[in-house]
Each structure stands twice: as C-alpha cells, then as structure tokens.
Amino acid sequence: MRLDDRQWAGLLLFVGIAQFAIIGLTVAESVYPGYSVSINYISDLGVGPAALIFDPSIILVGLVVLATAWFLLRAFKDRLVSVVVALAGVGAIAVGVFTESFGVIHELVSLWTFIFIALSAILAMRIVRPPFAYISVLLGLLSYAALGLYISKIYLGLGPGGMERMIVWPVLAWGLAFGGYLFASSPSASGTSVTP
Fold this sequence. Notes:
The protein is mainly α.
C-alpha cells in the first residue's frame, strides 16, 4: 500500500492523537493515585506519578503534529494551515519538556498549544469540504469558548480540571476526525483549495 502526502498526514495525526488520548490521558490518569479529572489539571500528570507516561506521550503527539504539518503543506500547498498546525505541534512538545515545575513558562506553552490547536481546527475549513469544514470550525470555537471560561475561572461546576478538558476534548475529537478524513479521502475528494 502506497500512501500519498494527504494520507500520511491523516494517518500520523490519527495515530498521534489516539495514543495521547488513550495513553497520555486515560492510562496516566488511571495510574495516578487519587487523581481527579475535576480538581486536578491535565498537566499534573506531567510531574506526578504518571510523568513517565504523560510527558513522552505529549512530546510524541507534538512530533507527530509537526510531521503532519509537513505532509499537509506538501498535499495542499496551504502555508497558513501548515504553519499553524506546526505551531501547535511545537507547543505540545514544549508542554512535555517544560512541565508544571517550570511555572509561568509551562503556563505560556500550554496557552500557546491551546490557541494554535483550536486555530488549526478552524483553519482546516480551508482544505476540507462541508459538512466537515463546519464541524472543524465548530470544534475549534468550542475549544476557544472553554478556554475563555477557563481563563475567567468560570468552571460551570466542572472544576478547573473538568473545564480544562472542555478545551482539550473538542480538539482531540477534531484531530481524530481530521486524521480519518485525510486518510480515507481520495485525491478527488480534496485538493489544493476547497471552496464551500
């Protein structure tokens, strides 16, 4: 089986996001005694008993997102989308390297990652067809809305950890769906530019 650039982008993104959702989050939360998805931040996993699981997983997803950006550029020739996706990948790597113990540096790289991955979802509308283009925008906007609430310390009864997950899960869902879309689509289903 020979994959084209678009399919490589999709395969890498799907596998990278899936491993992070399953290993970086679910397994890491499970091995962290007393961990609460409501009370604890996601980044608590990077400095506690689950650090050896979480940190390599988020660094790996960052590396895979960087590779995805390269293949997206080759497939679609859309520099804006590729650069924004690459910036999200760099942010994810930085989150794994500059853990919570780095204080404000960690907060900045986490914010960077949240901003650029949600923007990636929104800008994906430039290279995908409706209705997925609309779904991409919606998931990016949901992530931004949750980020605004989180920064304002409005947790809607979910706690800080729960609201942080409302930032992350829409873009994880988008990443899985986008990866599948790219991997499964034929050359006639996507091209260098898409007009809704």
